[in-house]
Amino acid sequence: MKFKRWMPRVLVFLLAMSSGLLYVRSSKGQISYRPKKQPIAFNHFVHVHENELACEDCHQGVKTGYRATLPTTETCSLCHSEPQGSSTKEKALIEGYIKEGKPILWQRLFVLPDHAVFSHRIHVVRGGIACQDCHGPMDMQKEPPRRLLKVLTMDDCMDCHKQQGALLDCNGCHR
Ligand code: HEC
Ligand code: HEC
Ligand code: HEC
Ligand code: HEC
Ligand code: HEC
């Protein structure tokens, strides 16, 4: 193909269109699958199994609200304002955040699109459903997974709702 003056402009236009579409799909219409990196290599296994913390000690909204929430620096400071065990690079990092009173910008992996409604309280307390059924073995992770261990699509929500006799009405989940 011979080079024409309009070619670069068409190429730029197509690139802009496709990245624009990708952005809209991942931020508004659908669950995002982009890998994310956490500011500290947090270890669920050490906290949940070796030190017997409950999920709601850190995910404080999980039994009371819509969002489970991610922990604040104050929650970590309950223990890490004092050195815990032998010092490591990751422990020095968390101690630094606490000393400076800086927020830790945890990245959420699971973000439903704005049009879908989900309440943790209703599923965990009223429905009695285990975290692992929806999130996979998060409690066993020794470092933060970069992607969701388990994805729940609309079909997954519907399958369980059919089995358990919960709502199937479009307006119940969408606004
Ligand atoms: C029935 C499925 C289901 C169960 C059970 C469940 N979750 Fe979730 N979880 C979700 C969905 C869906 C999202 C995304 C919600 C959104 O974007 O509004 C989510 C998001 C989260 C997040 C991200 C932060 C946030 O505030 O949304 C955390 C942390 C979390 N869940 C922890 C837990 C813990 C801990 C438990 C058990 C005590 C639990 N979840 C039980 C489905 C579930
Ligand atoms: C109830 C006390 C407690 C709380 C709250 C707590 N931790 Fe820990 N943390 C510990 C203990 C105990 C250890 C293990 C010390 C050891 O034996 O090496 C640990 C270990 C760690 C390590 C090293 C992990 C590894 O792989 O060895 C990091 C990093 C860490 N914590 C970060 C955090 C962060 C971030 C928070 C807040 C979200 C937090 N901790 C909340 C008690 C706590
Ligand atoms: C000591 C605090 C602490 C405890 C206890 C804890 N978590 Fe977490 N959790 C975190 C932190 C910090 C993150 C973000 C970094 C990461 O992914 O490791 C996180 C992330 C998550 C996520 C990913 C949420 C998202 O963004 O989509 C899930 C799911 C989750 N935790 C489930 C659990 C479950 C289930 C338990 C109990 C078995 C639990 N956590 C106990 C601190 C904690
Ligand atoms: C493992 C089973 C299971 C999964 C997966 C599940 N649900 Fe549910 N859901 C239930 C049960 C059980 C109830 C009824 C709880 C009750 O009222 O006792 C419920 C209730 C609801 C309600 C009604 C709340 C109210 O006000 O009564 C909404 C909305 C909802 N779920 C949305 C979702 C969405 C969105 C997803 C997927 C992201 C989802 N659910 C995934 C089991 C599940
Ligand atoms: C139990 C909860 C639930 C019910 C009931 C439900 N949805 Fe959804 N729906 C979701 C969730 C969660 C998503 C986002 C995750 C995904 O895209 O799979 C979604 C996504 C969608 C999307 C966007 C899909 C895309 O690819 O962007 C459409 C359109 C939709 N639903 C239509 C409907 C219609 C029509 C009904 C009624 C027949 C319905 N939904 C009933 C939970 C539900």
End-to-end gap? 50 Å
Secondary-structure element series: HHHHHHHHH
Given the C-alpha coordinates, what overall shape results?
Answer: flat
Helix content: 40-55%
Task: Please state the oligomeric state of the protein chains shown.
Answer: single chain
Query: Count the helices. How many?
Result: 9
Count of beta strands = 0
Indicate the radius of gyration in whole angstroms: 21 Å
Biggest beta sheet summary? none
| Arithmetic mean pLDDT | 89
Classify the secondary structure makeup into a structural class: mainly alpha
Hetero groups: heme C
Report the uncertain regions. 20-28
Which helices and strands occur, and which strands form pairs?
Elements: H1 7-29, H2 44-50, H3 55-58, H4 73-80, H5 89-100, H6 120-126, H7 131-135, H8 154-164, H9 170-173
Helix pairs in contact: 4-5
Residues 40, 42-43, 46-47, 51, 53, 58, 71, 75-76, 78-80, 84-86, 88, 90-91, 94 line the site of one heme C.
What does this structure look like?
- The protein is mainly alpha-helical and 175 residues long.
- The chain is 46% helix and 0% strand.
- It has helices spanning 7-29, 44-50, 55-58, 73-80, 89-100, 120-126, 131-135, 154-164, 170-173.
- Helix 4 crosses helix 5.
- It is flat, with a radius of gyration of 21 Å.
- Residues 40, 42-43, 46-47, 51, 53, 58, 71, 75-76, 78-80, 84-86, 88, 90-91, 94 line the site of one heme C.
- One heme C is lined by residues 40, 42-43, 46-47, 51, 53, 58, 71, 75-76, 78-80, 84-86, 88, 90-91, 94.
